[in-house]
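pls design
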């Protein structure tokens, strides 16, 4: 991850925490994230050195004023002024990671061969919360390349409970 982007994201999170407005800042960042994803041409326009800076800043202020926290708007304006809008995505990711850490939330991806039932999801999340001693925010993905079982990715940990992994372990034991 880009160190400059991490510094921007960390600084914004610290400001939001100081003001006790982390949720409000998150909402503001989400507005920009959605806008930049939905309108990549707009992001190109406000990032373009070929467009005068005053015009780019005025465009951002006109489009987003009133739709987001003023300091989040100023953050975007600063990124634009410093020609660092390409850092926005990583800065926003850093902000989210700091938010999750402050709330003791662990983002988990669960890959399974078939869709899990709500009961299975609840049981799995309860077990993960107990093991990791924090709240779990799980994203479920159906991966048809799996034969069966699940693969859980949490931070830098991978718990491979897939059938393919189990079969490989059996094969390794037999091959000895």
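designed seq:
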């Amino acid at each position: 991850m880009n160190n400059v982007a991490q510094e921007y994201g960390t600084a914004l999170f610290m400001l939001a925490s100081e003001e006790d407005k982390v949720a409000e800042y998150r909402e503001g960042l989400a507005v920009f994230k959605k806008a930049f994803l939905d309108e990549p041409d707009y992001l190109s326009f406000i990032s373009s050195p070929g467009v005068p800076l005053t015009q780019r800043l005025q465009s951002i202020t006109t489009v987003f004023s009133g739709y987001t926290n003023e300091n989040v708007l100023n953050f975007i304006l600063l990124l634009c002024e410093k020609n660092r809008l390409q850092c926005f995505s990583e800065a926003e990711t850093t902000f989210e990671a700091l938010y999750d850490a402050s709330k003791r939330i662990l983002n988990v991806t669960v890959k399974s061969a078939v869709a899990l039932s709500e009961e299975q999801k609840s049981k799995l999340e309860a077990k993960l919360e107990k093991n990791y001693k924090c709240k779990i925010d799980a994203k479920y993905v159906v991966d048809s390349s799996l034969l069966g079982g699940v693969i859980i990715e949490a931070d830098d940990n991978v718990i491979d409970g897939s059938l393919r992994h189990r079969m490989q372990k059996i094969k390794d034991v037999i091959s000895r």
